Each structure stands twice: as structure tokens, then as C-alpha cells.
Amino acid sequence: MKKFNKFVSAVLTSVMVASMVAGCADATSTGGGSAEGAGSDGAKVFKIGAIGPLTGGAAAYGNAVVNGAEIAVEEINAAGGINGYQIEYKKEDDECDAQKSVNAYNTLKDWGMQFLVGSTTSACSIAVSENTKADNMFQLTPSGSAVECVQYDNAFRVCFSDPSQGLASAQYIAEHKLATKIGIIYDSSDVYSTGVYQTFVDEAGRQGLEIVSSEAFTQDNNTDFTVQLQKAKDAGADLLFLPFYYKDASLVLTQASTMDYHPTIFGVDGLDGILTVENFDTSLAEGVMLLTPFAADATDDLTVNFVKKYQEKYGEVPNQFAADAYDAVYVIKAAIEKAGATPDQSVSDLCEALKGAMTQIEVAGLTSAKMTWDASGEPNKEPKAVVIKDGAYVSAD
User: Fold this and answer.
1) Which residues of 97-120 are buried (b: 16+ CB within 10 A; e: fewer)?
2) Which CATH superfamily hosts domain 21-160+301-383?
């Protein structure tokens, strides 16, 4: 909570419009090798691993993460590496399953991973953090937003925490007078969704927002939202707050349209990816708003160049999660350089070096012009608001 005032003031002064979500990837690498810090030719390299859902319902998140990280690795290697050493990069699929994420971690550990970019989703990141803590390996999740993702001193994050997103959303809605009556639908079986929901409700009360309906679902009954929608409609909710992932949200929007219910839709980073859902009528997402630290239509050189490279390499516009992961690799680079670390150090020694360096670095990236961290693992940065217009994420400005 100590960073919320700084975070929220930036939100309310920097408004933009676009998309959100997260992901992972299947096992590939920009090189090989099994010995710690050694590449396939025996040369010393830094070895970065990434974990996320490359297949399954959250694949838009995972693939964005591993793709964004891969572009950063290619750029850094082309520019001479880190402290003169190249990076080897390998990614693993966890299918958004906590146990499979732990298995993926062990696979990367056997490969010789020294730094982890992951996991992508909160529950998987929390599960893996038990292992990185035991191994004292440096972990930087690009998009795991639950508070517990950074509960250990070896774990940091690039994205905002769930409480930050819930708090800022309520303040943004109130400041911009987006609604008089608010309905909420949330996933009570998911730590991410409930975390955002709880702080949103608390802050909505302080902001004088009227919540007229608040209905839950779980992943065991996430195909029919008509009951939740009918209660919101009957209560006169003119804005629906949806703090959950894009696939379920696409069903909510489809069913709301069938019921001739057209409230303003407002979400957080989990909605990023809704335009990628197979067989979803994307016209139903027109006007959807969400908070995100990245807008692909921004005109700064870093964003323009990243979007161009991403589209050329992967054939699509990058979302927030790709930008988070891109920044994550550059954050690791900055911390390694600050610490003066070398690949021949042990995993534990590298972790200790980077833990100290993280509180001393300042990084300008895609998701913020100025990112800093303290020992809590939380970032200080400013988010943006985005909206879907003409089938694309655009800034409010």
C-alpha cells in the first residue's frame, strides 16, 4: 500500500487506452548447454529461462511473455551482451498449471538457468517461488500480480500488484465519473481476481461509488454468466467491473449483448488479449476500458521500434505482457551490470548480487519511463488507461 499514492496520482494524470493479459511458451532456446553458465560451445554465457502458458486458455499471456523476452535477448546479444557476455535463453510451457510450472522450473534448472523470467500467471509464479527461494535463484515475474508472488526476498516483479490495480481502478472510475452504479463480476476461485476485487470494493466505498451488484463465479462454472448479468442489469448498473482474464470476459460480453445489456466495461490487465479469442465477435469489445502500463500506439521511439520488431517477427501487435517481459530482461541486464556479475558465479551468489542491485537501479522501459524497486520486490512506475476502439487498443489521448 505504501506505493499506491505515487501510483494512483500517475494514473490519474496519464490516461491512455488499450489492452491486457499474460502468458508463457514451449521449450526452445537461443543456444543450448547443460553446465551452469556454459553455452553449447563451452563459452561462458548468462542463462535466462522463462515460464508461462504457451498452450491452453491463457496462451495469449504466455506466448506474449516469451516473445517479448526473446526480442530483448536478441537486442542485447547483438549489442555485445551483458558485461561482455552473451545470453542464452530457454522457455518452457506450464499450461497455466502450478505443478506443471514447477516441473518447467526443474527442467530449466537442469539446463543451467541462472535467472528466471516468470512465471507468467500469479498462481504459477507463487508455486515456483517456493523453489527459487529454496535454491536462492533470482526470480523476476513480468506479470504475476498477486501479493504473494514477491513474498520472498529473491523475487521481484515488473507489473503492478493486484491491490494496486483494484485501488487505481476505483479511483480512476470516480475521478472520471464513468458511472453512477457499478456491477461487479469476479472469479472467486482465482487469487488474481479476488485480490483485485477486494481492494476495488474497499476503495469504491471511500470514493463514494455505488456498487449495486457483486456476483462471483468459479472455473467450475464459467460458461454461463446470465444470472450475474441479469442481477447487474436489474440493479441498473451502467458500468461492469470485470477483474478477471480475457477468455471468460469474452463470454460475459457475448452473453450481455444477447440480453440487450450494454454497460461500460472496465477491467484490469487480465482483459488484455480479449481481441485474440477465437470466434469472438470483437465488435462487442468496442469501448472496453482497462488499466495497463503499455499502449502499443504510443509514439515514443522505444515503443515504435518494439512494436515494429514484434509485428515483423510474430505477425501481431504486442500486448502489455510482451512489454512487461521485454522490460524484465533489460531489468536483469541493468542489475547484472550494477552488480558487476559474471556467469561463472554460482546461482546463489548471482541472486545475492542482484538483490542488492535491484534497489539501486533505475530503468527506462516500455511500461514506464522510470522504474525503481525496493527490497519489497514491488515496482514504482506509472500506468496508463486504454480503450478498445475500431478493433484496436488506443490511448485516450
Assistant:
1) bbebbbbbbeebbebbbbbbbbbb
2) Response regulator (3.40.50.2300)
